[in-house]
Give the backbone structure.
Amino acid sequence: MKRYKILLLVADGLGDRPIRFLNGRTPLEAADKPNLNSILRSSLAGLMDPIEPGIVPGSDTSHLAIFGLNPRVYYKGRGSFEALGAGAELREGDIAFRGNFATIDENFVVIDRRAGRRLDEAEQLVALLNREIQEVDGVRVRFYRGTEHRVSVVLSGEKLSDKVSDTDPHEVHKKILRAEAREYTEEAKRTAEVVNKLTDRIISVLSASHINKERIERGLPPANIVLLRGASTHTELPKLKDYTSLRGAAVSATALIKGVCRSLGMHVVTPPRATGGVDTDYLSKAAHTVKLLKEDYDLVFLHIKATDAASHDGNAPEKVKAIEMIDKVVGRILDGVGSEIVILFTGDHATPVEVKEHTGDPVPVMLYTPDSIVPDYLSDFNEREARKGSLKIVGLNIMHLLLNYSNRASKYGA
Amino acid sequence: MKRYKILLLVADGLGDRPIRFLNGRTPLEAADKPNLNSILRSSLAGLMDPIEPGIVPGSDTSHLAIFGLNPRVYYKGRGSFEALGAGAELREGDIAFRGNFATIDENFVVIDRRAGRRLDEAEQLVALLNREIQEVDGVRVRFYRGTEHRVSVVLSGEKLSDKVSDTDPHEVHKKILRAEAREYTEEAKRTAEVVNKLTDRIISVLSASHINKERIERGLPPANIVLLRGASTHTELPKLKDYTSLRGAAVSATALIKGVCRSLGMHVVTPPRATGGVDTDYLSKAAHTVKLLKEDYDLVFLHIKATDAASHDGNAPEKVKAIEMIDKVVGRILDGVGSEIVILFTGDHATPVEVKEHTGDPVPVMLYTPDSIVPDYLSDFNEREARKGSLKIVGLNIMHLLLNYSNRASKYGA
């Protein structure tokens, strides 16, 4: 049998519920999807619980499961994924924090958790921090720029621990917090001390910078601190190539997802004008996906964040539009590589527009293969029709299904 | 409630996909199945993933699961199952190899991996080897005849390991391989040495035999070596009677499956003219099944290999015919024991005719019970209709379902 290449297409937060504004339809039901529905005729379809029924997945835990690694075993926190996604090279034992450039007043009370969110000087501020703060108490410190106000902070050295609390109070009008050991170990105590000294250094470097002086002059909130949260230890993950034999590439503009993919040893591409938002350049992503599928990769993973972003904003029309653009992306890819390809389309979790947060609802899944199979004969790809399909799966099943239907699976036993 | 006897009927490789030659129908759809469809009206039905969705099962791992033992825990390789199926008595720690009588030239290059496949002298050759080679370096050696060119080889002794590589190069025109230790242990090193000395002895015994001299005179390839592969350690498995309370008997002509059943402590019967092929005597198997059901057995497992054999040959009409014969077998059994019996019919995996290999597709399953239950009202037992049924199960569920619907289950809890 021919071994097909694989497109794994994940729309972040795809799953939804009936929306009043859409006359009781879900965004998938409301969206026009000629390309998806065309391959649906030869597809398996159904519902997937990314982790387990009812468990509300994060995008990181869900993607780990979809890529075949049980998050109960492999997930250690999102900090190191974000740092990897932001370009960090991490070694076993490094401690990564998620950070925000933020604004505090002279009493260390948080005025703006995002320093105005749009921070045109983020690049310069990160460079400044890396120049001025290279180590604290013998611990190496590195800063990596994320999107908008986000920055990853990585500590490298002996005897560090991720069992330290956040300096981020997670609310405005509250004082920043002192990091504390979350367990009775020397490592945790020492790491908390390093984090607190680091925070003092960051405040003094940023407060003294001309960039912030200019921001204040222009009436903008100064980025005078990096709030830290979610310490996580970097541990090496198994590599996709080793446990599936698949050479994998990823197309994504979302740091967290890029970090997961880098952790799995995948080649990660962020096409020009791909933003991880509703303003992303879908067709640039499609073009890069086609290019990678024509190269030496067996599996190309295409991640679209816009569906989730629209959901968090409670914007149903924007989510419908994102799905319609995804359908166009599928059309472009089929035009580019032909239909001799296995395609799995799903979401990593539901983010219902009326909830604006991730939920543990199952998400629709469809699996197209060029081979002759008994398809599920759904008339449309959406949450309601998916109930009639034969797939009732969890995220951990997906890699096995892809290997099977692309004729790449090894027999278990004789 | 009455405790019913149980017929567990497994058609090897039953599951399939739409076949062009059958106008897009699967063999199950194309086959005439009056007896199965008659009991289907009072049956549960649906789809089963023998291991997990997408995992491509071997017949051994799948049967372990169907009999209620998780292969991830209990499966150690097929060698010991085949040896047991060929009649070996194995003790904990014995090392079993799968072997082929094969033909090599004077440079130890494999000319025919099956010594012509049909080997009428196999019985005599096995007897010769058992007479001439009883031990190597203090390790006891036994040979057991399998079907056609197949032979199981068992090593018994202290300090042996299954971590040794094959002598079988798995291809013609290649030299036979020297066995090597696959881990750094004295046991593995010693076992590899024994295997290599054993191979030298086998070659000299077989080359000198008059049987091979006569084969050469008749223009046939001499069976002058036994190629060894798939070393596996025999470990005792839990017994079906202990973990289900069911006294079990098996009707099968396939060494691998007979070995699995013997491992579980079942009584194994191979009726006359049952071949494990498409030429098997179905009605002889049916008669023996009826006989065993009338005896003191609670569960009789009837295994039919013909469906898988037809699939591996890519022969759709042969597979349709095999299914129609299985339907007749069901009719005979119902005639013989009446309808006061629980019947589960399924496959151990899919072997689609157009793929010719096992795949990880789910397989249809039906469960008939004489008691009044809410049935699934399928109009026909096949892959397409099975999607409408209520069963969405894995192999490990089957024993529990059989115990429940035969009124033999014990309550879990109070």
